[in-house]
Queue: 3 jobs
Job 1
Amino acid sequence: MEALFPKQDSTKKPAIVVKRIISLIEQGELKPGDKLPNEMEIVRQSEISRTSVREALSALELMRIIVRVPGEGTYVTEEALFGTFGPKRILENFLEDTESVNGSFEALEARMMFESSVAAMAARRAEPEQIEKMEEMLIDSEKALAEHDVKLFLDIDAAFHLSIAEATNNDVIASINKSLLEKADVHMWHRYKEDLGLLETTVEGHKKILSAIKERDPKKASYFSEQHLSRYVKGGN
């Protein structure tokens, strides 16, 4: 049987694997419900590093093109390419961005698992001056959005999430969150967020999280944090 993943020169670009899988789907060689080779088999066939293969699969899962079932394997979804991810133009932009990414998709997955718990702890521990700092950030982000200063807006976005971690008053948690934010690189997502109209809903998501923190409601803070980050993979609220 011919290898699905021919050998490649580069060992660093997850985009190579992402584009190859999408190409196989477009050509009909992979269909919804089909099982992909496991990570090690893709590594063997392509000679691309396992880290890059794992990163590529994370990206494809975020795009709802594949689903990984623990203990069973990785499958092509029914919504591959034109499902919840959105129009092909958005997918093409997303693929272009994967050319330079290194670790961002796995970091986003980690953020989705980590930050909901962080928000819950912040709801219990945040000091009044920390809450005031977050309120000021929301005002600044609304101004940046009104002026369509995307770079500033995303800088404030990252700073807001870091401020939630700082409000746990746990230096280790703040350090881990800062590392994840740097790894995820919020600027890498700006076209995706603009394409799907997510810039306009980011502030509202932040407001909900902060409101729950001010109410000292850990469950609501955790829920709104998870909901906020899930927009990246669902293309909406």
Job 2
Amino acid sequence: MKIYGIPNCDTVKKARAWLGEHGIEAEFHDYKKQGVPLDVLKKAARQLGWEALINKKGPTWRKQPDEVKNAVTSEKAAFEFLAATSSAIRRPLLDVDGTYHLGFSAEQYQEIFKP
């Protein structure tokens, strides 16, 4: 199991804390230090849709010029944008045995990890 994100993101911190509190180990992949693994984004996009990977509510997306936002109209354009702008990836991205989950809520994680 692997969790992808940025360590100073509050949502990533909450997700990692939840996992730790429940004794669930997950390897952390830091987009800032380790880069954006495009193969993982492609696999996640197949399950969730490429649009779901872009955090359009976050400040990174909102601060983009309209011409940049308007150019993200395809999976290829989205991957290029996210590779260059990792802060715009919705996070965390959790990989549980090849099944991908985006975001965090305690209820969501309880459902994912229910016995």
Job 3
Amino acid sequence: MKLINSTILFSVILISILLTGCDDTDSVTPSEDHFEAAGYIIKNANDSTVFKVLKGQVDNTISESFVLILAEDSQKYTIEFLDEDGKNIGIPEHDEHEDSEEDEEHELNFEIEDINFAQFDITEWEINISPLKVGETTFRIQILHEGHPDFTSPYVPMVIK
């Protein structure tokens, strides 16, 4: 009787290991659909880098804060992302899904701490920012992928002059 119970127990354990071991999801290794960024640069309409953040640190050699000029009305900027070494890796590529109405898996999210300082409109990987008043606030950037962030920057300073 003990031999039969041991055999059944061993079989149940073996089947459990095989069933859970065949799962394709790996909770440690990121999915290949995830865009691995360590920072970003913001470029103005002239394609000049005006702000850079890498590994959570603002690059003070470019600017200590993201600066907007109130008198210039709406200002257009593009975002490009950086890898761990600071190399420009562009923006996430998006796959077109035949079965889905959505053609982008990744999207840009721009959060400003105090919405009284600026309004913004995001179109793909461009941000159109309209400064509203002089002052200082903070903002952060996220890459959203299927409802969750693949990348979230820390809040960094924004100055409207």
